[in-house]
Amino acid sequence: MEAKDSVTLDEKCIATMKPDALSPAETEAKTEGIGVTKAGMATGKCFVSAMLAGAFIAFGGMYFCVFLGDPTIPFAAQRMVGGICFCLGLVLVLCCGAELFTGNSLMCCAKASGKIGWAGMLKNWVIVWFGNLAGALVAVALIYFAQVYAMNGGAVGQAMVSVAAGKVSPDWFTLFAKGIMCNILVCLAVWIGFAGRTVTDKVIGIILPISAFVACGFEHCVANMFFLPTGLLLNSMGIGAEGAITMGGILFNLSAATLGNIVGGVLVGMAYWYIYAKRAK
């Protein structure tokens, strides 16, 4: 019995130490297991973990805006390098551990396999959405008191307001479509993160999909929990055009972005569940 246990343990150690990434089928199975863990997490711990994720994404948004604070940089360079700066947020989420609403849409894999119920999945989504919002607002306050907006003679603050204003101007369906596209890329990045075995795997793997969604101007509801309140706060201080951002505009954007993000994430999760979970069975 002891010999058998020793062999099993050795096999597990070898599997863990393999340098190559998990296969798509292994990643799908891991995603289901992660979904079960997330559904069973205690409410308080889930909320605090979600606050961390909201703050982490806000830090990425802050980094993005600081880079945009130099208006002399050409458009293409702004979008590409700014997108790489924003990757900071998901790197912190995946490598440090936190509950991110957009990534948690992949819990649909565990639901489709009957490992969690509707109640567990939806409860997690609601707790995490509000936790992300709380964490983002704490980050907004800290970044404001640190006067990051005053950098480069106030150009960073102008960039923050400009980014926020651009997010409340499109019509609802456009924002919804941007939300779908955003979370397709985000969940593919999370999928790569689940497949990676090392921090290096995760960091390098998420750079292209995350920088792509930022460069294309797609809508991420958690990022907007930072961009929009920051823009509203600075706009009320006289930065940017008067009335460029309103509370109504924030709710308008978040409703479209949130629903679009859910659709995009579920599309990714269900596609891989259909391909790999069914084959495994």
From TrEMBL:
GO MF entries: formate transmembrane transporter activity
Which keywords fit this entry according to its UniProt record?
Membrane, Transmembrane, Transmembrane helix
Q: Which residues cross the membrane?
A: 47-69, 81-101, 122-146, 172-194, 206-230, 250-275
- A GO CC annotation given for this chain: plasma membrane
Spell out the subcellular localization from the entry.
Membrane
Q: Its principal location?
A: membrane
What Pfam family does this protein match (any one)?
Form_Nir_trans
Q: Family per UniProt?
A: Belongs to the FNT transporter (TC 1.A.16) family.
Kindly provide the name given to this protein in its UniProt entry: Formate transporter FocA
Q: Where is the organism placed in the taxonomic lineage, from the top?
A: Bacteria, Bacillati, Actinomycetota, Coriobacteriia, Eggerthellales
